[in-house]
Amino acid sequence: MSDYRALIVDDEPDIRELLDITLSRMAIECTAAATLSEARDLLANQPFHLCLTDMSLPDGNGIDLVDWMQSQCPGVPVAVITAYGSMDSAITALKTGAFDFVSKPVELPRLRELVESALRLPADTGSQSKGDDRPDEDDPLLGDSPEIDALRRQARKVARSQAPVYISGESGSGKELVARLIHEHGPRRSHRFVPVNCGAIPQELMESEFFGHRKGSFTGATENKDGLFQAAHQGTLFLDEVADLPMPMQVKLLRAIQEKRIRPVGAKEETAVDVRVLSATHRNLAALVEDGLFRQDLFYRINVIELRVPSLRERTADIPILAQHILARLAQDYELPPAQLSKEALTALQAHPFPGNVRELENCLERAFTLSEDDAINASDLQLGGPSKTPEGGGNAGLPDPAESGMDLESYLESIERTTIDKAMAQTEGNKTAAARQLGVSFRALRYKLKKLGME
């Protein structure tokens, strides 16, 4: 690294010297201040790329400096140095806007990681923190409603820190997209984003999945295996549906987050990991804490900053943009001409409550995409009044019983579709137009099914 300048704020000469030597070896020019007022004067009159401040200063508190910097020099990341075990102070600093924290006695490898992360921050995030909420070309959050603009602005702001973020919102509202936006606008964007659904991991495998295991540590452990924390090293670990974690795992997760160290199953020593943790759930985590179903200390640790994702019915103005994007993706995926929504269809979509949010909108449009005629989707194609009835005479005569065949529901339904389409294509000697007419579906619907089932 070169051409970087750091401000070190600490009233202890030994600490200042240690930090100065460490950063100088990283080719970072250092300036020191012993008081809060001296630090403010230096920040107001000189450019810096990073600030490290002790929590306790002769004329104030390090958090006061963090707060002052948020308004006076928001583009400069600031990290606080806390006393060992002062997690409450560290969390307060993160809530105030600190980039990260390091505890005394300062571990130099941890300090170097912190500094490297701070200097990897995108250069343009300073303008974003001042209110630039325009979406990027590859922005995963689609929409320009005030609600989504505010969320986009908040996500970009918290991307600058290493504070744990808790993302709340209903199922299907786009919580993972918000987590990805935070990752992509932060200093870890060149490393992995690792999403995991906590509710999908069997309880007996959970510790191994999160922390890895050593060969021979249990039956079936035939080789060493890294866990999710190792996979996300220097990147971001997104814990979706974190409320589904059992109590024993909550304890282990809390320790991993606080100590930044993990112990693989069967290992004798702990391993240091550098991971930013983002978490989410559609459930009311605070209520679960009150009911004793979620640890209060873990909730306190992962909920340093909370972002709430609005439901789709709270931002109906974004439905036209979302619908256009979904239909364009469907057309590309299935190599079919794009479909357009009629005015009546768009009005119907904006009037629908969408309890399943964006995910339900996607399913609704995918169904309508296959049913539409002449590349136009009408209100009737949306079937928003409820599930369609099975046509009279329909059935599955001659097809295997899913319970007896051992097939899951999705595979069973696909087998019905394959059998029915094969029969129609054979009877019409491969004429897709005639086969679609015989099946009572649109030509688009048949083309879609052939592509989806790999029958082309």
Radius of gyration: 27 Å
Helical percent range? 40-55%
Q: How many DSSP E strands?
A: 16
Beta percentage is: 5-15%
Oligomer state of the chains in this structure: single chain
Alpha-carbon distance between the two ends = 55 Å
Q: What structural class do helix, strand and pairing data support? A: alpha/beta
The unreliable regions are 124-131, 387-395
For the biggest β-sheet, the strand order reads 2-1-3-6-7
Form type = elongated
Q: Give a short account of the largest sheet.
A: 5 strands, parallel
How many H/I helices? 21
Overall pLDDT score: 86
Description:
The radius of gyration is 27 Å and the shape is elongated. The longest helix is centred in the last third of the chain and has 19 residues, at about 410-425. It has about 450 residues and is an alpha/beta fold. Helix content is about 45%, strand content about 15%. It contains 21 helices and 16 strands.
Concise account of the structure shown:
With 456 residues, this protein is an alpha/beta fold. The chain has 21 helices and 16 strands.
Blueprint of the fold:
Layout: E1 4-9, H1 13-24, E2 28-33, H2 36-45, E3 50-54, E4 56-57, E5 60-61, H3 62-72, E6 78-82, H4 87-96, E7 100-103, H5 108-119, H6 125-128, H7 146-158, E8 165-168, H8 175-184, E9 193-197, H9 206-211, H10 228-231, E10 236-240, H11 247-259, E11 261-262, E12 271-272, E13 276-281, H12 285-290, H13 296-302, E14 305-308, H14 319-333, E15 340-341, H15 343-351, H16 357-371, E16 376-377, H17 379-382, H18 402-405, H19 409-427, H20 432-439, H21 443-452
Parallel strand pairs: 1-2, 1-3, 3-6, 6-7, 8-13, 8-14, 9-10, 10-13, 15-16
Antiparallel strand pairs: 4-5, 11-12
